[in-house]
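Changelog note: in this version the structure field was regenerated for every chain. One regenerated record is shown below for reference.
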Amino acid sequence: MDAADLAAVGGVHPDPPGPGLVGRRQAVAAEALGAAKAASAFPNPIVTGSYTKDPPNYHLVAEMPLDLPWLRSPRIGAADAARHAAGYQFAFDRAGILFDVDTSYTRALATAMHAELSRRTADDADSLLRIARLRREVGDVSELDVRLAAVNAGQLRNAAVDDSLTALGDLLSLQLQMGMGGDTAAIRLVDSLSAADDTLGAVARAGEYLPVAAAAARLRSTERALSFTRASRFAPSLQIGFDKGDPGSTAPEQLLPVIGFSLPFPIFNWNGGEITRAAGERDRARAELDLTRRETNAAVAPAPREPLAARDSGRRSAEPRA
């Protein structure tokens, strides 16, 4: 399975498998592509050789299953729809991981800046403690003021240590999400993030959201699988071969052609169990599509308002105060 094959799975970008969920989803996409290729392959012929005492003695028959259109089309359609569903789901999971990493980067950057502010505040408290001690030497402040300054400096130093540990934990967690080691700090955070463009409307205009598209593709796959299950009750095959070794013939070594066909008769088994199972999977996929569409619309509804509120809050925070 090369990168070009993976790229064909629903438009998946041929990146190497990432850590965690990305690697597993790319494996699922590769599995769906393999199933699509297997569904489009033609069946192999079966060659049977036999010997009988009755003339003619030698028999050689090749049986070729007939991959008729009403069998081949739903089988390939089901596998192809499953391939697209895997591609859509992979793209959605990959975008979700990128979003989580971006959020974790912002959170780690915020905690790092907060830890730096706490350290500076603790340094200022230490400076005030030293000043209080010097003023005590000249009799400007009392011993109680020095003790209060010492307590305040100790509390701020403890808070700075806690904030530093929190910032380090967020940084190591970010490195794990990026596929790096989580034992030591290996990256340096830089405040280079900018507000993302409003792509929500463009995505909505381009088509359905990825979870809805994946659920719709799974529904199409189950529908085609149901059609294939119903049609597979009648799967004929063609037989072509020859006989040889008839002593009563004027030419015993002459090859006598054999042509036949086989057609199953569903007398005892009408494949009702498999049809019922396929119908149940179709109904479940239909219900999951409706649920996914409702949940996605509910999750997307507040999304346009949240960036506006965040930008407005940031603008008000940046305004100078009188």
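Spot check on this record: The first strand starts at residue 46 and ends at 51. The longest helix spans residues 69-137.
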